[in-house]
Amino acid sequence: LTSADLELARAFPEGFLWGAATASYQIEGGAFEDGRGSSIWDDFSATPGKVFQGENGNVAADHYHRLAEDTELMSSLGLGAYRFSIAWPRILPEGRGAINNAGLDFYDRLVDGLLAKGITPYVTLYHWDLPSPLQQEGGWVKRETAFAYADFAEVVAKRLGDRVTNWITLNEPWCSAYLGYGIGIHAPGVQDRQAALDAGHHLMLGHGLAVPRIRAHSAPNSQVGITLNLAHVYANDERPETQRDVALADAFSNRWFLDPILRGHYTEGFFEQLGLNAPPVQDGDLATISTPIDFLGVNNYTRLLVKGNTERIPLADQVSLVAPIPSACYTEMGWEVYPNGLRDLLLRLTKDYAVSKLYVTENGAAFKDAWNGNGHVSDPRRVDYLRTHIAGLAEAIQQGAPLRGYFVWSLMDNFEWAEGYSKRFGIVYIDYPTQKRVVKESGYWYAGLLKAFNQAHSK
Ligand code: GBH
């Protein structure tokens, strides 16, 4: 740690929460054990041509069998919080109805293990693994799925609510809706933009229905929120068509979910901007969707830089982005590294939406990491990514953003969805053939920052 890093650690207020995040299908493995049902990601991965090299999450990082080792690892890094998700098909193998207690037992053990080490659990109830039987009925395109989801959320809250006080209803419904039902590069692989809009509505409805049911079963000081993937949108130039397309991109990438959830209405003109029909909104839906939440979770990786289209008005999801900038740095995902994007996003949310609390629930980068076989993984670009983005957080807080915590994506390398195991986001390296965990240089750097933070705040 440099002296600038020590100063950075001291810039964060007392009580700021430092964590790391994962998701069930990406790390657990144990895919067909102890009564787990199948999910749309099992099905999608088994479909030829959908995931890089035909890979799947059957084993992943084998976290299902390595709870003790992994919670010990978190503790050794000094994490204050751990964000993980619950696999719905472990709890309700048919999606609804019969409860599989062995599934609940697994998360029960995880929660107890974390609490015993002083690590606060942040539980995501849905990180994309919809039970297959529900998809056979149409999945999120069907209104009934929202009610099935709220029932599932209540089952989990009833079991864990005596110990878990921090809940995230959904992870990135934009991705579930658009990548899953709109362009089909994620499960369930549907390609129908109208279906995406309808799925988005039912995801938000499920969120709103679940909020009071989670609260009813957890401690009075509990907080319930939702995590959205958001990206600040910048104009490449001053042309009026650029200003117009910036607004279109913002409506599609950010406001699709922000406006209904935090303002109680869809963005004016949004369905027309997509060239689609309104989703099937029923009376009272928007009131349910905008049920007050305790915090907004923000997942952010990059920015959007928009170049206005001169020839025609693009649809909101077909705005032109600027081609890779020669002087900029890109991660293995092809995403530009632009640290001010996170700061500007947090400040924009503070200004435009009445959010009382913000968390960055994911932020991180994929780079080509190599383990040299003797316990060392050098990843200087990830260290740099984390340092500069965390510096942006400090600036946002100083300028008034109510940011309460930060979770790095990810605790460990994992199944990167359609990219399979080819992209590594962890601050801990996974050697998949042996399942050995090796803390990367970035993991040691993060642990050092957390230690400096704790020292600064201990009397
Ligand atoms: C998250 O998705 C997921 O929650 C997590 O499971 C996943 O492993 C992690 O991030 C890393 O991918 O594509 O250039 O237009 C993030 C998905 C990434 C979708 C950024 C929107 C916009 C940039 N989002 N993306 S670009």
UniProtKB/TrEMBL annotation:
InterPro entries: GH, GH_1_N_CS, Glyco_hydro_1, Glyco_hydro_1_AS, Glyco_hydro_1_beta-glucosidase. GO terms for molecular function: beta-glucosidase activity. It comes from the Bacteria. One of its GO terms (cellular component) is cytosol. Keywords: Carbohydrate metabolism, Cellulose degradation, Glycosidase, Hydrolase, Polysaccharide degradation. Substrate binds at residues 26, 127, 171, 301, 409, 416-417. The keyword Metal-binding does not apply. Pfam families: Glyco_hydro_1 (PF00232). It catalyses: Hydrolysis of terminal, non-reducing beta-D-glucosyl residues with release of beta-D-glucose. Gene3D superfamilies: Glycosidases. The active site is at residues 172, 362. Its EC number is 3.2.1.21. GO terms for biological process: cellulose catabolic process. Belongs to the glycosyl hydrolase 1 family. PANTHER family: GLYCOSYL HYDROLASE (PTHR10353), LP05116P (PTHR10353:SF36). This is Beta-glucosidase.
